[in-house]
């Protein structure tokens, strides 16, 4: 009985959607089926591949960006596991979540950084920051409190984009710095989708680093 009540309470949990100026606008979301199935946690994966029209000379990046979040307000955790960077490469690469999970014309159709609160870069929820590959790999574990897999500002169905260059983290002199961080061309991407816990569980422990904000 106690368990039944807690399941009902969980199911009735109300999350606020802050994307509207109207403070009466609430989003009521039942937890996704997978939350019950996987110990109150949602898991997501993003299968990274090179954009179709990759310019000559750019590396072909493959791998996964994995997400998980405990329902409803746990801190989102992210594992980045990418390969294909030149082994001798000292180029730092920016990774962001972009608005649209549409890679039909490469990452161009993925739109701008996902920015549900209308804030300047690098304060967007998916501004993961800069990553230096080691021996051709980027392998990181991050905690990203502003990334949500539940509610009106969920990143499910949106795109992760890997850039050619380093993100200036909003410190540049031009306007684009506060929009995108001047991270150069988009070289690889993927769409974030719900998955089982198996990918998260099978990836080995990766170097832990807090988000660089
Ligand atoms: Cu980006
Ligand atoms: Zn941004």
TrEMBL record:
Residues 1-19 form the signal peptide. Residues 63-192 form the Superoxide dismutase copper/zinc binding domain. Its main location: Golgi. Keywords: Antioxidant, Copper, Disulfide bond, Glycoprotein, Golgi apparatus, Metal-binding, Oxidoreductase, Secreted, Signal, Zinc. GO terms for molecular function: copper ion binding; superoxide dismutase activity. It is an enzyme of class 1 (oxidoreductase). It is found in: Golgi apparatus, trans-Golgi network; Secreted, Extracellular space. Belongs to the Cu-Zn superoxide dismutase family. This is Extracellular superoxide dismutase [Cu-Zn]. It comes from Danio rerio (Zebrafish).
């Amino acid at each position: 009985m106690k368990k039944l009540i807690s399941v009902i309470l969980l199911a009735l949990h109300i999350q606020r959607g802050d994307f509207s100026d109207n403070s009466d606008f609430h989003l009521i979301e039942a937890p996704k089926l997978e939350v019950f199935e996987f110990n109150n946690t949602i898991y997501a994966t993003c299968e990274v591949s090179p954009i179709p029209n990759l310019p000559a000379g750019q590396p072909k990046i493959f791998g996964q960006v994995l997400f998980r979040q405990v329902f409803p307000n746990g801190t989102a955790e992210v594992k980045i596991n990418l390969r294909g960077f030149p082994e001798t490469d000292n180029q730092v690469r920016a990774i962001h979540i972009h608005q649209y999970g549409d890679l039909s014309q490469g990452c161009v159709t993925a739109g701008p950084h996902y920015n549900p609160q209308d804030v300047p870069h690098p304060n967007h929820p998916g501004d993961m920051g800069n990553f230096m590959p080691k021996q051709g790999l980027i392998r990181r574990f991050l905690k990203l409190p502003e990334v949500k897999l539940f509610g009106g500002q969920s990143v499910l169905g949106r795109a992760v984009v890997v850039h050619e260059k380093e993100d200036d983290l909003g410190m540049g002199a031009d306007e684009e710095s506060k929009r995108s961080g001047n991270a150069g061309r988009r070289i690889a991407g993927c769409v974030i989708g719900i998955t089982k816990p198996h990918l998260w569980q099978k990836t080995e422990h990766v170097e832990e680093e807090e988000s660089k904000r």
